């Protein structure tokens, strides 16, 4: 089981609009966070896969925000490779940011990656930030 009480949550795009807000709110609740960005420490860059492993080392969960957009050509392959590395590293909670108009791209990506859980505008209602925070800090159930 993943320890979400002491391990940080990696927030990719943590210096952007939604990532920054999520990081601030989680920090205010005492949840440790690690900001994933090109200027972060350790550094994270979608275009440099060698930065992915060090950024996710020792985290309990990852909030994935792909720039510029999950629907751009090549995004699914890149995020898929990242997700496979995360799962292979023992990370069991990955949350993929979904914007308006991205639901179909997100759904296709998750099905392609054989992900058993889906959430999005077609599958569930949008969630307020506090519910996303609760989801990110919750301990995953064991099978």
Task: Give a brief rundown of this model.
The chain is of the alpha/beta class. It is 35% helix and 10% strand.
Account of the 3D structure:
The chain is 35% helix and 10% strand. The chain has 143 residues and is of the alpha/beta class. It has a single domain, classed as Rossmann fold (3-Layer(aba) Sandwich), CATH 3.40.50. The chain has a four-stranded parallel beta sheet with strand order 2-1-3-4, covered by helices on one side. The longest helix has 14 residues. The protein is globular.
Secondary structure blueprint with pairings:
Elements: E1 9-12, H1 17-28, E2 33-36, H2 52-56, E3 61-64, H3 75-88, E4 94-96, H4 103-112, H5 129-137
Parallel strand pairs: 1-2, 1-3, 3-4
Strand order of the largest sheet: 2-1-3-4
Give average pLDDT, whole number: 80
Shape: globular
Looking at CATH, which topology would you report? Rossmann fold
Total separate domains: 1
Q: Could you give the count of β-strands?
A: 4
CATH superfamily: NAD(P)-binding Rossmann-like Domain
């Amino acid at each position: 089981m993943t320890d979400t009480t002491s391990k940080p949550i990696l927030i990719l795009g943590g210096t952007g609009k939604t990532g920054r807000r999520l990081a601030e709110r989680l920090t205010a609740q005492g949840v440790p966070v690690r900001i994933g960005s090109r200027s972060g420490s350790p550094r994270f860059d979608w275009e440099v896969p060698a930065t992915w492993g060090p950024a996710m080392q020792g985290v309990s969960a990852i909030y994935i925000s792909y720039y510029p957009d999950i629907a751009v050509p090549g995004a699914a392959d890149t995020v898929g490779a990242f997700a496979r590395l995360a799962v292979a590293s023992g990370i069991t909670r990955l949350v993929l940011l979904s914007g308006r108009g991205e639901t179909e791209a997100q759904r296709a990506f998750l099905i392609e990656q054989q992900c058993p859980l889906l959430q999005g505008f077609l599958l569930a209602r949008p969630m307020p930030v506090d519910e996303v925070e609760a989801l990110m800090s919750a301990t995953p159930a064991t099978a």
